[in-house]
From TrEMBL:
It comes from the Eukaryota. One of its GO terms (molecular function) is ciliary neurotrophic factor receptor binding. This is Ciliary neurotrophic factor a. InterPro entries: 4_helix_cytokine-like_core (IPR009079), Ciliary_neurotrophic_fac_CNTF (IPR000151). It comes from Oryzias latipes.
Length: 200
């Protein structure tokens, strides 16, 4: 356990370029999911505070988590979020009808594609750290059926879109934290090398 806690980007195969790329994708998703929420609230006349609570089930964040655990938590949350979003889109089209495709439907499609890209990217980061051949975080306990009544369904859709936005922001925070830690480690290593050189 101690070995896992001391793992870092420096002694793993995790590339700062890859983490930065993932962070940029997460930033894009954050903006796109915010726009989707705005469009959906306008479409269904929901106020800004119409939803609360989380649908995604992951352990709470902790400063004690190492790089691998932080990535695993994020990847697991994104996997659950993707499953919820795919089910929400299917349920909405089944129950509320497809209709003419407009800005809302196009934005929903964009968010779905960006989330899939971010999930793939974080999966690759986790493989680089953990060396796992396959990643299958559990979806046990995740409610994918959606509620029965029309109003509850619309509110559930709002919750799902809120989860996408929440975890896009969490992804940005986690990935930028990893970049900051890597920069601190590099700076510390440089200082140690400089000190050693000065002593010779």
């Amino acid at each position: 356990m101690a070995d896992r806690r001391t793992r870092s980007m420096k002694n793993s195969n995790l590339s700062r370029t890859a983490v930065n790329r993932a962070s940029m994708i997460a930033l894009q998703l954050q903006g796109e999911s915010s726009k989707l929420l705005e469009l959906y609230r306008q479409k269904e006349s929901f106020p800004a505070d119409a939803t609360d609570g989380r649908l995604v089930l992951v352990p709470p964040p902790s400063s004690q988590l190492d790089t691998r655990d932080k990535l695993w938590r994020l990847h697991s949350a994104l996997l659950q979020t993707q499953s919820l979003l795919e089910r929400a889109i299917t349920k909405e089209e089944e129950e509320l009808g497809g209709g003419i495709k407009g800005e809302y439907e196009n934005q929903r499609k964009t968010v779905k594609g960006r989330l899939s890209f971010l999930l793939l990217t974080t999966g690759n980061l986790l493989k680089a750290v953990d060396g796992a051949a396959s990643l299958t975080p559990s979806l046990e306990g995740l409610e994918l059926d959606g509620p029965a009544t029309l109003f509850q369904l619309k509110l559930w859709l709002l919750q799902v879109f809120s989860e996408v936005h929440h975890w896009s922001k969490a992804a940005v925070t986690t990935l930028q934290e990893l970049l900051t830690n890597a920069a601190d480690e590099r700076s510390s290593t440089t200082r140690v090398r400089s000190t050693r050189s000065a002593r010779r």
